[in-house]
Fold these 3 entries.
Entry 1:
Amino acid sequence: MSNIVRLGIVLAIVTLIAAFVLAEIYSVTKPRIEIQKKAKEREALDYVLPNAKVLEPVSKKIPIVNDEGDTLYQKEVVEYYRAYEKEDSTGLIGYAFKAEGAGYSSIIETMVGFDTWGDITRIKIISQKETPGLGALAENSEPFEGKKWSTQQFRDKSVEDLKVDKDGGEIVSITGATITSRAITNSIRTEMKDLLNRIEFSPKDQTKEN
Amino acid sequence: MSLITEAVKGIYKENPVFRLALGLCPVLAVSTSIINAIGMGAATTFVLLSSNTIVSLLILLFGKILSEEGQKSINKIRIPMFIVVIASFVTIVEMVMAAYFPELSESLGIFIPLIVVNCIILGRAEGFASKNPLLPSIADAIGMGIGFTLALTAIAFIRELLGSGALLGFNIMGGEFKPVLLFILPPGAFLVIGIYMGFLNWLDERKKRSS
Amino acid sequence: MEYSIFQIIILSIFVNNFVLARFLGLCPYMGVSKQLDSAIGMGMAVTFVMTIASLVTWLLYTFFLAPTYENVFYSLFNLPIQDVPDLTFLRTIVFILVIASLVQFIEMYIQKVSPTLYRALGIYLPLITTNCAILGVAVLNIDLFFIDGLPAESSFIHTIVQAFSAGLGFTLVLVLMAGIRERLEMIGIPKPLRGLPIAFIVAGLMSIAFLGFSGMNIG
Amino acid sequence: MNETADKLFISTSSPHLRDTDSINKIMWTVNVALIPALIMAYYFFGTRALWITLLAVVAAVATEALVHRVAGKSIRIHDGSAVITGILLAFNLPASAPWWMPIVGSVFAIVIVKELFGGLGNNILNPALAARAFLLASWPVEMTASWVSPREGTLSGISAITSATPLSLLKDSAEIIANPQNYEPGRVQQAQEAIANLSSSYSNLLIGNVGGCIGETSVIALLIGALFMFYRHVLTWQIPFTYIGTVALLAWIFGGSEGLFTGNWIFHILSGGLILGAFYMATDMVTSPLNSRGQIIFGVGCGILTVAIRLWGGYPEGVSYSIILMNLAVPLIDRYTVPSVFGEVNKK
Amino acid sequence: MKIKSFHGGVHPFEGKEFTEKKKIEILPLPGTVSIPLAQHIGAPTNPIVEKGQEVKAGEKLAEANGYISVPVHASISGKVKGIEDIDHPVAGRGKAVTIVAGESEEWIDTIREDKNYFDLSVDEMRNRIREAGLAGMGGATFPTHVKLSPPPDKKIDTAILNGVECEPYLTADHRLMLEYPEDILNGFRLIMKILGVQRGIIGIENNKRDAVEVMRQYINNSNNIKIAVFPVKYPQGAEKQLIKATLNREVPSGGLPMDIGVVVQNVGTAKAVYDAVAHRRPLTHRVLTVTGSGIREPKNVLAPIGTPFQDIVDFCGGLTEKASKIIMGGPMMGISQPHLKVPVVKGTSGILILEEKESHLRPEEPCINCGRCVLVCPSHLLPTTLQMLVYNERIEEAEDLHIMDCIECGSCSYICPANRYLVQTIRHGKRQVIQARKKAS
Ligand SMILES: Cc1cc2nc3c(=O)[nH]c(=O)nc-3n(C[C@H](O)[C@H](O)[C@H](O)COP(=O)(O)O)c2cc1C
Ligand SMILES: Cc1cc2nc3c(=O)[nH]c(=O)nc-3n(C[C@H](O)[C@H](O)[C@H](O)COP(=O)(O)O)c2cc1C
Ligand SMILES: Cc1cc2nc3c(=O)[nH]c(=O)nc-3n(C[C@H](O)[C@H](O)[C@H](O)COP(=O)(O)O)c2cc1C
Ligand SMILES: Cc1cc2nc3c(=O)[nH]c(=O)nc-3n(C[C@H](O)[C@H](O)[C@H](O)CO)c2cc1C
Ligand code: SF4
Ligand code: SF4
Ligand code: SF4
Ligand code: SF4
Ligand code: FES
């Protein structure tokens, strides 16, 4: 047996031991990592639809096609969530979805919830890498006073209202960061419009209670 | 050299960042806030300590069980072996951080896996731990780790203070202060480290002149 | 949302320049920018290795590590998809070993095939193993072009394009830096700043200038 | 007369004759050339423009003196280069800038960009522009959020946005026309009108009756100064003309909203900081190439980058970034444009 | 003829008005002269006279030493006082034969007009030129007979007569052309005959219209000689730039004019050639311009070689109070002299005296990269870059950037607004290159 092969085997053994140890640790940490990952999304959902007891994902399947045109498999993608008031998945109170728009220096993901009237309940910025101190102020969720951008200002807005002030709408944009504000506002509007059409949404025929 | 001096040299005289200019990328990338700096410093120190320990032990082990010739040939795969050791510890850090400190893990991003290629670590494993017994290797790792963390924190201190007017997230510059955004943007990192290095050189020169 | 190939090129070279905005590859940026000739050599070597390394790591990740539908356990051994082992935790270990041996291999290969190219790149290749930009781009490709562990559309092409243009962006700033440092050699920089400190300040100013590209052509 | 026989005369090596031009003359010429634009700035933006300029100049000169003092060099503020830096920095700020901004900018320009490199002649970036980029990155809101509207200034007849700069108006309008679905129909129509009416604003652009930085708006005043600099041989044609020419050409080709070759290139030349940049800042000799072939490459490069940033970048204006980006390439340009020596072509 | 100029150059203050209208005056016989043994490029001569020996004017004092060398002759008659080291205006120190004038002036008797001089053999002509001690009078003092003996493989097709006199202040060549046009032309014809060329061109700058007219009158019936008039620009008179402007040919980098079939001679040299061939008159006197703000009566003077500057200055009314710098030659390339005891040599085209305020070198300021030095360099070099390289002792890179092609015209230093000592540093760098090359071989 040549020396090289012997050394190769030694190295392989070392690597295997390492891999084994890692696999052990991974099996311990993996569940927690998954929980952390889900927790974030879950947290956002809970935030945008505070009254929901059950949030049911509605998925669609996207066929993945290879070069010959055969469908290889169906990819499942969560389209939106339905929110129910009761534990037993009854009493639809609203929907939630994720909107994505290109901001100043990143793609901004926003979780949006709206009620059965088609009015937004709350929004939450899930991820963004905009300029700190500027576009990143988009995450601000302090109570809205009518002067300064806050995610709270989206409350009770309907699709038609979603335009930033510079474009003639009602959304107060972040000072000096119109691009970011526009990206968020416009992405919500576009996707929400789209979604409303797809789920053939019509406001419930009842007066809204506060 | 006593263990203490072994550990202390990494802090000022042979500071890995300011003096040896090693492992620069994470230093610049994660020094936007002190929290990040300390997190990165701790992760790096952990890997450094573990790998120095294991490497030192491995060499000891080979010395015990292998013949002269066996040691020589094992020497040829020394580096890949060190890399495997280091990479394993890095992966451990990566997983643990993702599981228990998700926020930190997100803001440090790909610089956690990149600890593998941080030349401080391989450099110390190869240059120090493989040639020294266990205790000095540990002392060296602690010193270098602290030196790295301190440098990182020193940079983060300036960047966070000027760039967001806060320290550790507490606003301390008062409401009037308009943060100098540049300092948390990439250019700020370069400028701050450059000026630190120049300042240290100047201090050295002055000391040399006065003595 | 996905970027087009053109956008990936512009973004990786200018907007998110690997060195100036992402802070990757700083050691060679500072270490090999004293002379123009070596900067050009290093730039070419990095671009080359980066592209090859990204290609190989993408293949490994897709076919062996991640529980994808391309994974060999699924496509060759017909394991049910939920039983395909998730080896993603080995990413770091596998990538670094692959890159290290790849560099060795490329070095030997070039030496045999093209001695001229070897003379131009040879001395830089060993330095590249511990250059975080190579591992960085490999990891970043996974971060960017895989969604929930599955390769996004055109992820292979995008990976290659991103790696190659990241290399070009690296070369660009390295060569600019080398030109500037050659000039700085000849003038009276204050003494404590000579060498690395002034190079960092130049890098800072360069990074300020590159902010001019920020916001370019996204979306 | 024999006492001269033993006198020792002054010995120096040739040449014994010197041109009368000096650094001081060159620099003060530029300062004088900037005065007409300053007067126009005062006229349109009021005394605040003067205060900002004064603060910037005093800060620049004082900082330079202080640095020289600390470094133990002889203080050479009389050469006027710091004054130019101060004025040009102020010219690149909006008149609404807070008082501390010109001061912080000047300190940055002089300390970080100029003196750390060894002072006059050694800096690699244009100090005033690098400082502007620093201010823009640090306080983007203060630098762009509110433009002081000039006296009775209007642009394209849209009074609601008179305070916008011409280029931001152009950029916003282009964006609106490209994505009409995102806007109220009224805004879309307004934007179309704005673009159609660009040419009616030429005279305001010429005299400077538009929003913008303190010193960049009055094209006429800047050109008068430039003529003076040409007369005093401080300028050569290469950089300004290739720069402006490239911008005009590319703006004409790519700048239109109705396809290629429909751009309004006159508007692109007259608005923003192009005239200021091309004649006063790209021409800073310290940070531009040595010989004319290099200068032409430099000018063309600035032009390409300016148009790229204006049309596709994140900012409405690209002049300052394009110049500092090209500054970075100057050592390379110089290296690859070494003229062929006399007699080299004939060498067998 | 289509005239192209050369690239670069400067327009310094001309200063010619002090002397351009002044006839050449003959200096009264000096009391002593010191005639250096080395007045040309090449090996110094071997003295053949001894201390105490009586010599006549025109008598040979020292013999040429090898091929690239020419003899020197006594310029006055008298007694040899000694052969010792004196201050030399070009070389710093050097051996010279000092002669104390005798009672009366006595010349050697071989100086005679030779009516058929034009029919002499070319070899005899060269021989007479060499025996007469001719070295180029345009400044470089290269032995003329060598220049007139191109190797057979170099085909010479054009001779150029250099009457440009582009140095500010100097008017010696100008006056020579006005007062001795026939001698100059005859000399030029001899040069053309020796070289076997059919084409001769006289180059004159546009500020000497009168000289152009005079020369034109005298050549009107010979169609193989033409006059080329050039715009006023320094260094129009530099050989390579003159050839470029006249013929649009470039002397290859590192080469000689004869590589492209041209020989250039100064007008003073041409007159000396005529004197040497037609009269067998050795080179004992030369015309020089005494000028500048520091002299009371600027003049053009014909002076014996070896005359101390002091005698010439006295003849021109002496120095003014403010005089503080003495320059041998013009202001652009001339060499400043610490005192007035130095003698006139074959290459002395003038003595320029400047006042205090014109004399000092201003302190060097930082280069602002303005590129003016690059713009004016007639050799297309990058003076500021070369200077930086020399300052940083990066001599090899300077050599790669053709530092050796610098003709040391000084245009770069003249124009630099930062008073950089460009040509000065470059000269130093050239010396270092030569040393390095010597060490290598
Ligand atoms: C360094 C820097 C970072 C910026 N980051 C953002 C950002 O994150 N979001 C944004 O909308 N604008 C950002 N801008 C500002 C834009 O370039 C632009 O000036 C601004 O959007 C103008 O819009 P306004 O109409 O809100 O004033 C940034 C500017 C600079 C100089
Ligand atoms: C910068 C420079 C300027 C010169 N100007 C003149 C000039 O104006 N007239 C002249 O006869 N020679 C001038 N020369 C010398 C000529 O190059 C050349 O040596 C001379 O004309 C040859 O003639 P000669 O051998 O008869 O002296 C100059 C040389 C240099 C380097
Ligand atoms: C070292 C040296 C060798 C030369 N050799 C020759 C030669 O062989 N033939 C010739 O015609 N001129 C020769 N020259 C003369 C040059 O062509 C030129 O006329 C002389 O250097 C004076 O030119 P300038 O006054 O322009 O510097 C030589 C000059 C030097 C310095
Ligand atoms: C034509 C000309 C243009 C100049 N432009 C600038 C400028 O844009 N910004 C600046 O700070 N200094 C400028 N200066 C002044 C000076 O050259 C500059 O401060 C140097 O870069 C300092 O080393 C200029 C000088 C001249 C002669
Ligand atoms: S990784 Fe390479 S280039 Fe970077 S510091 Fe270490 S040895 Fe130097
Ligand atoms: S030697 Fe000097 S003055 Fe005489 S002609 Fe030549 S350059 Fe002109
Ligand atoms: S570098 Fe030489 S040739 Fe060029 S201008 Fe200066 S002195 Fe004249
Ligand atoms: S002329 Fe003087 S200041 Fe201008 S580039 Fe040349 S050396 Fe520098
Ligand atoms: S290259 Fe990034 S840490 Fe060295």
Entry 2:
Amino acid sequence: MEKSDTLRFAGREFRSRLIVGTGKYPDHRSMQRAHEASGAEIVTVAVRRVNLDRTQESLLDYIDAKKYTLLPNTAGCYTAEEAIKTAILAREVGLSDMVKLEVIGDQRTLFPDNEELLKATKVLVKEGFVVLPYTNDDPVMAKKLEDAGAAAVMPLGAPIGSGLGIRNPYNIKIILEAARVPVIVDAGVGTASDATIAMELGCDGVLMNTGIACAKDPVAMAEAMRHAVIAGRLAYLAGRIAKKLYATASSPLEGMIE
Amino acid sequence: MEKSDTLRFAGREFRSRLIVGTGKYPDHRSMQRAHEASGAEIVTVAVRRVNLDRTQESLLDYIDAKKYTLLPNTAGCYTAEEAIKTAILAREVGLSDMVKLEVIGDQRTLFPDNEELLKATKVLVKEGFVVLPYTNDDPVMAKKLEDAGAAAVMPLGAPIGSGLGIRNPYNIKIILEAARVPVIVDAGVGTASDATIAMELGCDGVLMNTGIACAKDPVAMAEAMRHAVIAGRLAYLAGRIAKKLYATASSPLEGMIE
Amino acid sequence: MEKSDTLRFAGREFRSRLIVGTGKYPDHRSMQRAHEASGAEIVTVAVRRVNLDRTQESLLDYIDAKKYTLLPNTAGCYTAEEAIKTAILAREVGLSDMVKLEVIGDQRTLFPDNEELLKATKVLVKEGFVVLPYTNDDPVMAKKLEDAGAAAVMPLGAPIGSGLGIRNPYNIKIILEAARVPVIVDAGVGTASDATIAMELGCDGVLMNTGIACAKDPVAMAEAMRHAVIAGRLAYLAGRIAKKLYATASSPLEGMIE
Amino acid sequence: MEKSDTLRFAGREFRSRLIVGTGKYPDHRSMQRAHEASGAEIVTVAVRRVNLDRTQESLLDYIDAKKYTLLPNTAGCYTAEEAIKTAILAREVGLSDMVKLEVIGDQRTLFPDNEELLKATKVLVKEGFVVLPYTNDDPVMAKKLEDAGAAAVMPLGAPIGSGLGIRNPYNIKIILEAARVPVIVDAGVGTASDATIAMELGCDGVLMNTGIACAKDPVAMAEAMRHAVIAGRLAYLAGRIAKKLYATASSPLEGMIE
Amino acid sequence: MVNGKKLEVPDGATITALLEELNINPLRVAVQLNLEIIKRERYDTTTLRTGDKLEIITFMAGGSE
Amino acid sequence: MVNGKKLEVPDGATITALLEELNINPLRVAVQLNLEIIKRERYDTTTLRTGDKLEIITFMAGGSE
Amino acid sequence: MVNGKKLEVPDGATITALLEELNINPLRVAVQLNLEIIKRERYDTTTLRTGDKLEIITFMAGGSE
Amino acid sequence: MVNGKKLEVPDGATITALLEELNINPLRVAVQLNLEIIKRERYDTTTLRTGDKLEIITFMAGGSE
């Protein structure tokens, strides 16, 4: 079933609905194995100056460009201008024209600055980028980002790195009702059920990093997340039973033994 | 990983931690396909009089006894005596010495009658049965059932058929803290994330029927549940990140572009 | 409104629906002031040997017997026999024929032993006691206690002293649907909203001790609880609005300024 | 205690922390009685053209201007410009220089348009208004509104008229951590406990209309809300007990009867 | 035009006169004439002509929440 | 009486014969005669008389959950 | 033995006397002598002997919750 | 100045030469010279002078989430 049911945006198509990160891993090797276990096809990376006096090897030695689509992010940017500049430099590297657009509004909580985010989205869309903006769960802003040409909207489920899951499924539902582009939950996923719940709401995908990278066993958690996203998607498509205070037995009452 | 990590009780061992039912399916054929999709190895069945003027075929034509372990249940019994009699007849059929012991205390909600349940458990354990009692989420009763020789305890997550999931994870946690036999959540699972959450709590397995059989697409939901149980188990073993109100970025601050 | 809407059982009538305790307070004086602030009319007390080499004054010097109804409890009893003996001695003191019946089944969590509780209830009802049994949120046991003659049933909202509130409002709802005696939530209340929620569910009263006695300011918390119980009761009677994903404005659209 | 503990902003001081509305009531009379029962001192009103062919009496005949502070709102405005114009006309009426600033971004859900809201706030603050902006629970926007000179910030607890309560207490907590002006939850309150929870989080006040006006008995619900807000505030000040999975008895173990 | 409705007003009538005729308490309204707000003290002296667009605003029950 | 229904059974017929006639696979049922469980190996030798109360039990779809 | 403690009590002393000596208000306690409950009206007439096991019970702060 | 660090670069050296010397794979970086982005095809022909401000950007592990 996962075969035909794919994640599509900006003319791309992905079998996996899970997007993973590269930060916070114990080491590049465990990251690589976690990526494999996750089944993800998109990996987000930071854009930084080359470390001149570096002993460490390049991140890209651990991400097979044939297997994974690179999604540069603008983490650490606090203004539209910084984010735009970072995105343009990222594209110059020549490995991706997509950008996970982050414009942080609060260093403490890493909540987005939606005003600046919208500005940057408009500019980068004009520049021909495939823009995936990280935003909060505000339905009005989600619609504005979509209207500005975002290829998908990525509302947070909970604050970055909090592991609190989908704090407000109601807002995500409301965003989904109106969205005409994919909705990908970005941030907040702490454990497998968080991802399952996101997908059961009808989200098109989930992006996570901390939940996997900082788990005691990142590779096992990555595999858990692979199953969790598939489970949630299938459950969404399968159509769950209604909730009731209680129901009646499935056991046929006729034929009871006397 | 699932290879080595198995569900064990009464000397049996199962690769799958999901136990499924046979009631409420549109037809035997869809049940059979759902069982396959679920990956379950244990299937619970009711014990009833043969329908003499039956046109319908036998349930057992649709459950490969080589592939599945049959778990007869005492659904519909309201006293220890009825349940014991039903269990003994079930064993006489010669296909299983296990019993999913149900003694219902309230026809409306199908909550168990724990007093009668405990009585029946004591008798059937003496009779050499492998007893899996369906109980509520009372830690004291769970311990008494374990002390009475139950092979596992099966607290409800929510009322049967309610689809409300794990209503009180705190009680399940408390039961798990003290249990020395497997804890298998029985009843209440409505969608994939419910099963994932049960497993993330540290439960050893999940038994469900309505959530799969009454989904719009039972086969797809069964597959969802297979992934959901694996996801939850892996997440439990992987060790999730702690929850915080918010955290800080994984992005290296050094190297920001000027 | 609170005037006419009273808590009634066993021929007694109380204006307040809040029952408070006497344990864990910093001192008798703060307890006394908290009792006043709470507006409670029933106070539960332990039954113990007189402390012979005591310097401390008697608890009863701090509870005006004209103002408060004393509710002796059987805290610390682990069998029906102990509880019965304690209740009988309590009545001999000559200040109350009511008993908050506690039979603990697990020293760690203080969950009730429902089997023993039911036994003790039957005996004490025959002995003419007004029995208020502390039980868990099992609808079947609640009904059995009622049938055994309990004057009210007191399901726990959450483990004693946990401050977790009403962990499973669904079970409380189910108990309320069938109950013909008052349902008083006993244990688990940690803050005002917990009490309000209990009352909004339709409970007849709330019993709490730790939540008040161990608050930083017990007197302020006691006053908070007084308001919380009234608020919840009034909201229950007033009939709340339905929940929706969203609604529309109350603002008249005609008359908008051009 | 409520005496000294007052709600203060823009040099005003109010004993009640509850702000109520005027819409959706069965009639002006029941509104008037609900206002009384609520104990509120601030009442929000819409700004509209006089109805020329009106038979109905004026709203202001039912709000004692000596007793209540009028808070005109800009409900129904979808741009900063409309909202500003409405606010200025409202002030011209000469009864209040405060404005509950609403700039709606989505007619379906009535979520605010934060961009326009911020623009209007800046203008109206310059014009000398006491601006109380209705926003969502975005901590970054809350801070921007505060920096723009808002006298308080009014994040929604849940969509207007939804009755869903505080959907995301985590965001409200984060807003409170950083706020230097009062935080008043606006919208979403459906029943008493919702208001209590808002206050327990540390909010400075709660604004509600639908929850009271559309209750079966608006006057009883208004009284419930009065108690609920006091309860929540007192509980917040009193300092609740910590939550634990379970705790130990308050009963002295020494002195058990043998 | 008053509040979007055609209304017969004697040419040269003051706002005060109009409010009186409409039996509207001037202390509870704001008035805008051809998009310009008219201060209360000018109600007596401000006269209306045909084609004037007048808005008379007051407080009514309502609000989004 | 078989499973609560009156049934014409030739006097002295064995359980095996009855099951065959009813076309029931003996390996999938349990049999109780006048409240006494009959082991499978005795199906051939156990004969039925008028008035006997026979229960033939099997597994069917169902369960509370 | 009173409440599990050895106590010197003059042989033949009444419960009333003992309570007085211990300065305990008889209206706030229940008394159990060798596992038999003694009604209040018998405090004056019930005398204590060496080896008696006496329990004096009252209400104290406490309860599980 | 390369990535904010003073670096001895022979006057007139090309970007290609510099990357080689720094042992950096040109296919994994973007280069910005005095705030102007240099396309890859110009690395061979673009020479560096003293005082030039050069940024060499690549992908590294990281992201906010």
Entry 3:
Amino acid sequence: MSYLTDSPIDQPALVARVMRSSDGALALFAGVVRNHHQGKSVESIFYECWRPMAEKEMAKIEADVAAAYPDVAIAFIHRLGLLQVGEASIVIACTSPHRDEAFAACREIIERVKQTVPIWKREKGPDGEEWVGWQGN
Amino acid sequence: MSYLTDSPIDQPALVARVMRSSDGALALFAGVVRNHHQGKSVESIFYECWRPMAEKEMAKIEADVAAAYPDVAIAFIHRLGLLQVGEASIVIACTSPHRDEAFAACREIIERVKQTVPIWKREKGPDGEEWVGWQGN
Amino acid sequence: MKVRLLLFAVLRDIVGTDERELEVADGSRAIDVWNGLRAAHPRIASYERPPFTAVNQDYVQPETMLRDGDELAFIPPVSGG
Amino acid sequence: MKVRLLLFAVLRDIVGTDERELEVADGSRAIDVWNGLRAAHPRIASYERPPFTAVNQDYVQPETMLRDGDELAFIPPVSGG
């Protein structure tokens, strides 16, 4: 199953992938395009990705988090391409018999995605477009 | 808006109540009826509630968490009556410009609901029904 | 004076009533009402204090003095969520 | 020997190419290729080390020795999620 999609994320389908009758807790996180960033107005964000390496890194994240929290079922997906304000760029669903592990796994996944998965965003606002973060000099 | 419902929880509607265009993060928690509890098989759970005090306690929780995390939009609802395995008893949706506060607020709400809101569950399994937790002698 | 006693969930099942008008002496505390219930119901006889106590829908200590017209509730440990 | 160089996002825009076949000397390290790019592109000239380096789709230190046929990527700080 791919961790990447070019279409709007189907959140109920993602949740359905992880829900087991032994689960008492679902922790879900969605990253959403917001209308501002560091004081600037944002209209849309383009997500670029190095797909083969991103898939590899995301599989590594899933394997590590699954090993750390063996009772947790995990599903997460990142959307690519042009997203408007209010659209979800990533959705992470973690279920578990108890809530502690579901929360912890969900949190760890988003932190690790933001650290290592080769995805970059270019923000578009009223003053034009620009890559977010490091831009050289 | 009531914090209690006798019908299946409409999760997309709950999320829609909190989503603002300034939000970059949605943290959602769902408590779900699971098929086991302390080694025993569970088929369904009946949720009893003292409604006026529950509404009051839940409003207090919302006010306290909103004060602690002023950037977070909060919506949560608890379902009452007879629920089958896999059905959500509570759904909490918290949105925020940044994820830290959304996660923290969501977590705090579920912890406080479990401490003070006058709701009690009676589990039904293959061996009959029984109140969960304290039962006198 | 009169208070209204409310019982829920397992406590209601143990005592056999969900709601009862009580005539109590002036100066009675919530714990005095609890002690009356304990005396009549073996399953709670060993509990010197009720799990939780609410007066007029606020959690209070069981030593709280009751006033005429109060709504007193003894609440089993909650298990929602 | 030959390596394939991949560049993404802002680094691709700065260098002006997303993919390039390079002929490099035996014993070259990833950082040597980076230094070649720095010499040609003022916007990255002051960066003695690339933000991130991957060889064959694994993150590595820029001092990693290259081998014939390697796929070398310089990766701007990621901003997904």
